[in-house]
Specification:
single chain; about 375 residues; alpha/beta; Immunoglobulin-like; Rossmann fold; eight-stranded mixed β-sheet; six-stranded antiparallel β-sheet; 9 helices; about 25% strand
Length: about 375
Amino acid sequence: MEYYASMRIFALIALLSAVSAVAQSPAQNPRPATLPAVVSPEVLSDHSVVFRLRAPKASEVTVSGDYGGQPGKMVKGEDGVWSFKTDPLPSDVYSYIFTVDGVRFPDPVNGWIKPGNPPVQSMFSVPGPESEVYERKPVPHGEVRVVYYASKTLGRERRMHIYLPPGYDSSKAHYPVTYLFHGGGEEDFGWEDIGRVNFALDNLIAQGKAKPMIVVMPSLYALGPPVPQGRSQDNDELFARDLAEDVLPYVESHYRTLPGAANRAMGGLGVGRGMLPDVVWPTLGKFGTVFFVSGGTDPDRFDALMKQYPGRFDDPANVKVIRFFLGDGRNDASMSASKKLGEEAAKRGYRVTTFATDGVHGWPSFRRCFVEWVQGAFR
């Protein structure tokens, strides 16, 4: 856990160093005291976005992000400010980063930072009806708690974030549980800090579009972070054990949960393209729904899992009760793996729902897939 805290400090130092490298000292480059402030990013009325960066001595500046497309080549103005304008963007929350003469750093005039491992990026929001589900609104709010539990599997204390729905403490109701996995660039805070899943659930529950539920967001790093080189398979197997033998029993003994696999869902992202299948196979039968947000399994990994867990995926008892949701971006490299898993599951009689966004591999697509999935969850 301390790894990402130290990485954030490292990233801030790197940012300050990078900006210092681009800018000149007052003695070298005296500037008028009335130099106008740089506005960046600027979201225009047509939902296009203008990025700006003052770097008068730079030779080449680009901007890239999860809003799609190739890195944009910024154009230098006479005032030393570089700029780039995107095409109109769908309403959502996006991240971006500048590259100045080979040095990458976030926008120095934008304080909204995307947490995670370096290189740290900046964030911005394009307002509109589609992104309102991620915004904090005057509705009853749930609560995200930081919880520590004793992992017998790993022999140490571990941390997870847990979302409790609005009214949990004042009610006696029992709730279904979703076990939601972060991606390779984040930790257990990812779906809250970047995915804004708590606000999305608050809003959808208030509108009657999602059932009240508990959402458990554990750390996928049984080893690390970072996972030592060559030990990703060990990490996946240890996490699957920790999930089944430590996380799940802890949640069900400390919170008011509904019993049985039908009231448990698991999925989300995963550290590396192969991790989620590595967790799904050994835990099949414990969860009634498995949902992938940008992922699946390629043919070689599928065959290896079928050999490692013979009969597990073909078990009629699992086929009868487990539902698969496969969400992905049409321009995401994982689309072929998603399609492969969907075909194999449907061939065996599993109920499979597919959903595709127009996005790339990034949080705008991840959020949309989650929102689509959660509206049909536990129904």
